[in-house]
Design goal:
The structure is a single chain. The chain is about 60% helix and about 5% strand. It has helices at about 10-20, 25-30, 40-45, 45-55, 55-60, 65-80, 85-105, and strands spanning about 5, 10. The chain has a two-stranded antiparallel ribbon. The longest helix has 19 residues, at about 85-105. It is elongated and about 65 Å long.
């Protein structure tokens, strides 16, 4: 316990090791989060995947969402006019889940059920 907490400083032993290799302001600085570049990914390496999930016929056939608002936001996002990454990501995750769970039902353990 003495190595873990000393003089009210938590993770004491870890900090001692880090001080040898990392500037002190990074070790002692406040915690901070980081952003995931979903917007850039949707315009780049995930664009083809997203195009497939946001396909007009697919959305119309499934009937869960109205196509027009999604299409306009997807167009604006691709052009870089506005960052719609988080609302689009929610829709994309729904469609990915739907495909995995409903379109291709699986038994517990991930085994595909016969069609």
């Amino acid at each position: 316990w003495e190595m873990k907490v000393r003089d009210g400083v938590r993770k004491w032993i870890l900090r001692q090791v880090l001080y040898r290799h990392v500037p002190a302001h990074l070790v002692d600085g406040a915690k901070r989060g980081f952003a995931i570049p979903i917007g850039a990914w949707l315009r780049g390496p995930l664009r083809e995947w997203a195009d497939g999930l946001l396909d007009r016929d697919r959305i119309m056939e499934q009937g869960f969402f109205r196509y027009e608002p999604i299409a306009s936001k997807w167009t604006e996002h691709r052009r870089g006019a506005y960052d719609w990454s988080y609302p689009l990501w929610t829709i994309l995750m729904f469609h990915a889940w739907y495909d995995a769970q409903v379109e291709q039902p699986r038994q517990p353990g991930g085994v595909l059920l016969p069609a």
